[in-house]
Amino acid sequence: MEQEFTYQEKIHTVKLDADNEESPKADSFKASIEDKQFKFNVSRISDNCFSIILDGKSRIVYAAESEDNVFVHLDGRVIKLAKADNDQKKFAGDSLAFGVKDEISTPMPGKVVKVLVAEGEKVEAGQSLVIVESMKMENDIKSPTNGSVKSIHFKAGELVEPGQPIIKLEPED
Amino acid sequence: MFNKILIANRGEIAVRVMRACREMGIKSVAVYSTIDRDALHVQTANEAVCIGEAPPGESYLNIDSIMDAVRTTGAEVIHPGYGFLAENHLFAERCEKDGIIFIGPNSKAMKLVGDKIASRKVIEEAGIPFIPGMKSKSTSVGKCIAEAEKIGYPVLLKASAGGGGKGMRIARSKEELAPAVEAGMRESQSAFGDPSVYLEKFIEQPRHIEFQVLADNYGNAVHLFERECSIQRRHQKIIEETPSTALNDDLRRRMGETALQVVKVSGYTNAGTVEMLLDRDMNYYFLEVNARLQVEHPVTEVVIGIDLVHAQIRIAAGEKMWLKQDSIKQNGHAIECRIYAEDPENNFLPSAGKILFMKEPSGPGIRHDCGVYSGYEVSVFYDPILSKLITWAPSREICCKRMAAALADFPLLGIKTDIEFLREAVSHPEFAAGNTFTDFISANMPSWAPSADDNILNNALIAASVYSKYARKSPSFSKSTAELPTPWQEIGDWQIAGGSG
């Protein structure tokens, strides 16, 4: 079985096959990622919890999925992997302070507090464009690029949904 | 003893107070907003009443709605938790007027210490050292600018009506001050319903030391020693510990006596915290009194061996102080890490969404005050604190290691949290050395990002593919129902019979 996951904008392919060596109360697997080969056995503890023994190293791994991602916890770390059929979406991260080059939006619901620019105004990368409030904290959204404000779609006091463009920019070429 | 307590709060603190009620044989009442129907505190209480829509102003800050809930449930006592109405003297006065016992300070003392300006006046008269600042609160940018000239930059802007870092900003010049005042007033209005702010002199690289106090209603008080709260981001604490590595026995004794003096001159009752700043020359200054049970109270509880909520309830019930200062001793070391739904890689901005899976850490010396669970949907309306992780150990060194291990053992999947960040902070050599100043994060871990080496990534990819493989096998596997086609989608185009005319 072959699966693709995206991590930090790079696609990784995992080939997973059953290993025919028997192991009591566990399933044996072989996997290859790029040119590396791995052999390990897995004991499924619950829907979200697995014990994996790889090269003698024993780990408890937790995993869960949403529509677009698989989240894994191991060695005290959380790794978020995007599923293969997830096209490079609008959201490059999980913060409020991003945007595709020409569309400023937020990844979670919030309320526009103050729009700091006007249509047609020239802006610089790093310049504050709009203040949005979420969870009682105010956040300054800055321009990712030099350019000018093409259009403004919300005003102070209005609620915004994730992904809705608040401001559209005309990036400088 | 009381029959029924209504907890006018939500999240982990509401759950924690309900635990104490249960242990004391007292019934608990939860209040919840429409979006909080599935919240843990609603599930934990004996009774639950819906008090309004999601925005705090319509629910958790809605005094009339809360008092209605008190009437319908017959609760004779209210515990306000922290934040929301906990330090709202109008709420405390309303309780007194309606004959409902408020678990906290009397409204007069609350009003005095809650007015950061007025309380400073009383402190000044008592000869207690304090930080220079504005003598009255303000909602005027112009006034703030004028006062800043007198105080001298850099200045610290704070909300007059409450704490938790809300409204706080540093301004190093006049140009920085005006926008800071505007933003601070808005945050304060949103968090506490009062936009008033004030300024004080900002002390560089201070240590934030606070003393827990308990006072009965008859003028008897004790302190339960200090908490060190220096590790902060956005002026909000995220790691606290006790004892403080900055204090020696003599300084500790003197600061404790000052804390009791503050309680005396302000007429404070029940549980509270006297905050002080320690500068680099080991001088300490009174900062303010927090007239509430604080978020970080557990570190005091595990090191002193006293349940502060039990104590609060007993004092509110009229019991005379049963603790003697001489027999209050610090035992071992405790650290608390606040688990927030935030993204440390992006300036700690809030992260909302569904907790797909979580497993709480446990073991000797580990305490977890938690307000969430697997499957819970974290919303944007309230403070993003999910839980508090507390470790205790006989020494600070073991306590740090125990905390790092507990944080490593704490999977929480689906939303961004500060768990990995906290683990690196408590494992940092500067933390181990006890060099905890309020600029710890910006000095030692600016623009932090989790380290992702190939080894971890490969193991994660293997884990993800194994998980997916098992997930496909089992049809009952939890999957978003949006992925399964519904009959309506499979039918094809359709319209309501009769046409649109």
Features:
A: 173 residues; mainly beta; OB fold (Dihydrolipoamide Acetyltransferase, E2P); 16 strands; B: alpha+beta; Dna Ligase, domain 1; 8-stranded antiparallel sheet; 22 strands
Summarize the structure.
The complex is a heterodimer of chains A (173) and B (501). With 173 residues, chain A is mostly beta strands.
Describe the structure.
The complex is a heterodimer of chains A (173) and B (501). Chain A is an all-beta fold. Chain A folds into 2 domains: 2-83; 103-171, Beta Barrel (OB fold (Dihydrolipoamide Acetyltransferase, E2P)). Chain A is 0% helix and 56% strand. In chain A, the strands form 3 sheets. Chain A has an 8-stranded antiparallel barrel with strand order 1-2-3-4-5-6-7-8. In chain A, strand 12 and strand 13 (137-142) form a beta hairpin. Chain A is elongated, with a radius of gyration of 22 Å. Residues 86-99 of chain A have low confidence and may be disordered. Chain B folds into 3 domains: 4-103, Rossmann fold (3-Layer(aba) Sandwich), CATH 3.40.50.20; 132-201, Dna Ligase, domain 1; 207-444, 2-Layer Sandwich (D-amino Acid Aminotransferase, Chain A, domain 1). Chain B has 17 helices and 22 strands. In chain B, the strands form 6 sheets. Chain B has an 8-stranded antiparallel sheet, sandwiched between helices. In chain B, a hairpin with a 5-residue loop joins strand 9 and strand 10 (221-233). At the A-B interface, strand 1, strand 2, strand 3, strand 4 and strand 5 of A face helix 8, strand 16, strand 17, strand 22 and helix 13 of B.
